[in-house]
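> run fold serine O-acetyltransferase
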Amino acid sequence: MGILKTIIEDLSQPKSQDPAYRSCVDLIFNYPGVWAVINHRFIHALWVKKWHKLARILAGISNFLTRVDLHPAAVVGRRVFIDHATGVVIGETAVIGDDCLIYQGVTLGGVSLDKGKRHPTLEDGVVVGAGAKILGNITIGKGSKIGANSVVVKDVPPNSTAVGIPAKCVSGNTRPLEHNKLPDITKELLIYLIKRVENLESCGDSKIVLDKKYQEYIKSIKE
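> ok
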């Protein structure tokens, strides 16, 4: 596919994915993430042709203008939309598939000083909530969702939803990602522990109810 057609797809993303979009004026002045991706198309082409110094210079200029730190070597698929954009960091060996949605403050970072693959891979259709950190050479499976401010350090299976620090997969995959409907696994654990203490102190007959609650908690998470 030609770069012009790819850029036209990039420019169409705010209208199709953001209800706040109103006009082309918005597109020009209020969607730095779109321009960061478009800039990257050209910068990455220079990187592939071994014009590394020029690519790094242009990436620095793009970072200054768009507030997206996107390494020239990173691979970005089609129709990738970085919404709001501020504070997004995408490392050198990161790979982003088609139709991914990334919100502000997201980091696709490394945890190793090795020169090889050390940044995440997002497969097609992944949604990453605001402030999430995905670290290391891990894979986020196709169609998965990462909750806001989660820290992901392990692979996430396709069509899953991961939340928490460190992130765990929870049952169900909300489409689109609706944070108000995600289970609070910390709250569930605390409720279970409180009821367990009450049960131990009272020596009552609430064991069956408590065991049911425990099984619901276990079901809500996957190791």
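The chain has two domains: 3-170, 184-222.
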